[in-house]
User: Which sequence fits this backbone?
């Protein structure tokens, strides 16, 4: 079985995705959970670039443009997410995710 | 395939490294031998190598020349800065360091050597409990990113170390990464004053990054390219046959240049924005716990960053390596670039000698309430300028008037509001 | 060609994995920044120059700063790092889930036949990219701009609210 560069890229992004997933699921610190989600998003971006580079139609820049939009949305997500972290911290004096279980208080 | 050839396939953009710009292919025949002198010298050095190794050797030469040139410029700038400051303050400045073994004083020209020896032989202290790895990495990261920013500036018609399609973006991406090094320095020192100072420095850097980037957008809009060499090419025409069409000589270009200049003063921690390491007020800000050669590396990175920002200002607004008058273009382009760069650096020092330091609230207010709106309005003005490109005859002065009004009106309004309602500051715990 | 890719992948994944396992949040964040820089290097390798610089500018320049500020603005107690029994169970469960997902993905990737690879790196100039963004994708560009503006305002409102009710601010 031969492993081409496209497969290697996809394996790379799968590994990155799983690292992010494990991090997001196992850590209780809100900031680290957010970073794990960012990592998963990055892994998805990686796939877009890999398919654009090795896909059948690289002249269409769809993959690149999708990644550009995705980076912009990731920036927005990080800004709002970390603002939420700070709001949670103001409220309950820690950033443990298990304790953020109330809608009011 | 040999190793370097393989490398050039791997990193497609690396093939541009060290080579002259692609414009070299369509060179005017009038290129003098003086203009081609750097290339000729490089050819003498690497011409005997096989073609596949040649670009690797050329890239290495470009990197070494860049670092050596700017390191010696750094040494001279420290001396020039102290001399100029001394001159402005009516004192001689450093004038006693003799040349080694000769005992010749030469107006303190050997001062950088003495400084270097002093810095190298000082004890390198790392605080107890500091994060040793990050403490060590911070100056290196800062220096590395500052050197990266130097790579994309066109130093002459044929001298671009790295001619990218998106080199302006590269410049600011590498420049933004220096913030990380400042944070690392402050946090790794395990000193709360260092950390607080690093936070202040970061707040300043982030605030001024915005006007810096926004003032570049009009240039990109008008040049229609993110490549520095193309931007310089576009400024190479003449009005009425002798007036240079540099971007600084248009209403939006002038405003953009001023915003860029003020923001780059703040980005490179220069007076009057040198709050992060205000020598006479703080100890040294985020550099408090650094000594010896690491401290020298920080200063080197600061001067490199200053040179890079000045070089970018020259490239974007002052016509890069273009001669100011048509009949002066027999002088090689890299000399024009060097002249403009040194002039701009001289203005940096002049400003340092003339202006008092800003307070932190004045600093942030200037960035957010004045420079950012002005840069945004400037962007709109540039759009107007671009839309009216075909106005001719009597409409031409009208275009200038409207554009100038679009800049000057908001400038006056914003400037008036900048210090409105601000009495003398009252201090709670001090008289 | 693949050696460079393998080195990049190893560096990026290792940095991310160590970052996710670290106790020191600052070290985690800095290692993650290194990992993001590795991803930017991958984009460069793939020939997507503009995206690589955008990734560097946004992730290494901006998001890293937001993360570091958030870490410093929230106080962390020993309690956050205590390995309680429930936490240990959750880590085990997370490792199992992650391993299962990884297995499925790897099996799927290795199970498909390799496609024919274009020999040359596709060239995509900034001009082409800009024309594509402003032409067929102009509506999405506008939408992203609106999203970014709203997110910025929302972030400011969220982080700045309840300031007056914070007892620690009283002199």
Assistant:
């Amino acid at each position: 079985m031969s492993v081409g560069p496209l497969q290697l890229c996809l394996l790379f992004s799968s590994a990155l995705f799983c690292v992010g997933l494990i991090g997001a699921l196992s850590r209780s610190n809100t900031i680290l959970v957010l970073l794990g989600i960012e990592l998963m998003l990055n892994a998805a971006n990686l796939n877009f670039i890999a398919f654009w580079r090795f896909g059948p139609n690289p002249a269409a820049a769809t993959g690149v443009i999708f990644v550009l939009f995705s980076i912009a949305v990731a920036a927005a997500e990080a800004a709002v997410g970390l603002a939420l972290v700070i709001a949670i911290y103001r409220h309950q004096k820690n950033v443990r995710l298990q304790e953020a279980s109330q809608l009011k208080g | 395939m040999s190793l370097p050839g393989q490398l050039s396939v791997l990193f497609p953009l690396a093939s541009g490294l060290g080579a002259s710009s692609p414009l070299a292919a369509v060179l005017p025949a009038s290129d003098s031998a003086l203009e081609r002198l750097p290339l000729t010298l490089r050819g003498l050095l690497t011409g005997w190598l096989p073609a596949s190794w040649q670009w690797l050797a050329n890239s290495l030469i470009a990197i070494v020349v860049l670092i050596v040139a700017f390191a010696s410029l750094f040494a001279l700038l420290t001396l020039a800065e102290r001399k100029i400051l001394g001159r402005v303050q009516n004192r001689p400045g450093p004038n006693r360091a003799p040349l080694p073994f000769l005992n010749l004083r030469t107006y303190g020209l050997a001062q950088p050597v003495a400084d270097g020896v002093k810095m190298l032989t000082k004890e390198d202290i790392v605080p107890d409990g500091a994060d040793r790895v990050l403490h060590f990495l911070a100056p290196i990261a800062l220096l590395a990113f500052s050197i990266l920013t130097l790579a994309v500036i066109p130093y002459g018609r044929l001298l671009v170390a790295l001619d990218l399609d998106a080199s302006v973006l590269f410049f600011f991406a590498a420049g933004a990464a220096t913030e990380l090094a400042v944070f690392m320095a402050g946090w790794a020192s395990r000193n709360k004053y260092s950390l607080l100072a690093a936070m202040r420095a970061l707040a300043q850097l982030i605030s001024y990054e915005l006007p810096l980037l926004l003032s570049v957008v009009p240039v990109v809009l008008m040049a229609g390219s993110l490549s520095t060499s193309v931007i310089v090419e576009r400024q190479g025409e003449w009005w009425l046959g002798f007036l240079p069409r540099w971007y600084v000589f248009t209403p939006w270009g002038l405003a953009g240049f001023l915003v860029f200049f003020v923001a780059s003063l703040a980005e490179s921690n220069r007076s009057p924005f040198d709050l992060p390491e205000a020598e006479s007020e703080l100890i040294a800000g985020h550099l408090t716990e650094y000594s010896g050669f690491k401290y020298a590396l920080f200063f080197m990175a600061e001067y490199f960053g200053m040179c890079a920002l000045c070089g970018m200002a020259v490239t974007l607004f002052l016509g890069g390596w273009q001669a100011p008058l048509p009949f002066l273009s027999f002088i090689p382009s890299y000399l024009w670039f060097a002249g403009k760069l040194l002039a701009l650096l001289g203005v940096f020092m002049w400003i340092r000698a003339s202006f008092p330091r800003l307070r932190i609230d004045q600093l942030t207010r200037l960035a957010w309430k004045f420079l950012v709106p002005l840069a945004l309005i400037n962007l709109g003005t540039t759009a107007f300028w671009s839309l009216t490109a075909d106005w001719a005859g009597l409409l031409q002065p009208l275009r200038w008037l409207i554009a100038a009004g679009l800049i000057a009106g908001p400038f006056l309004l914003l400037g008036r509001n900048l210090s409105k309602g601000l009495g003398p500051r009252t201090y709670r715990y001090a008289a | 060609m693949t050696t460079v890719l393998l080195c990049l992948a190893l560096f990026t994944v290792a940095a991310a994995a160590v970052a996710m396992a670290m106790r020191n949040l600052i070290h985690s964040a800095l290692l993650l920044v290194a990992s993001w820089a590795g991803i930017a290097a991958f984009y460069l390798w793939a020939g997507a120059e503009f995206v690589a610089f955008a990734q560097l500018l946004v992730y290494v320049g901006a998001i890293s700063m937001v993360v570091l500020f958030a870490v410093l603005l929230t106080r962390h107690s020993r309690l956050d790092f205590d390995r309680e029994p429930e936490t240990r169970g959750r880590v085990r469960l997370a490792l199992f889930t992650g391993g299962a997902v990884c297995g499925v993905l790897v099996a799927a990737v290795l199970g498909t036949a390799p496609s024919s690879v274009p020999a040359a790196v596709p060239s995509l100039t900034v001009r082409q990219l800009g024309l594509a963004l402003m032409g067929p994708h102009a509506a999405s560009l506008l939408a992203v701009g609106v999203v970014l503006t709203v997110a910025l305002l929302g972030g400011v409102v969220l982080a700045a609210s309840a300031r007056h009710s914070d007892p620690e601010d009283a002199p």
Summary: The mean pLDDT of chain B is 84. Residues 58-121 of chain B form one domain.
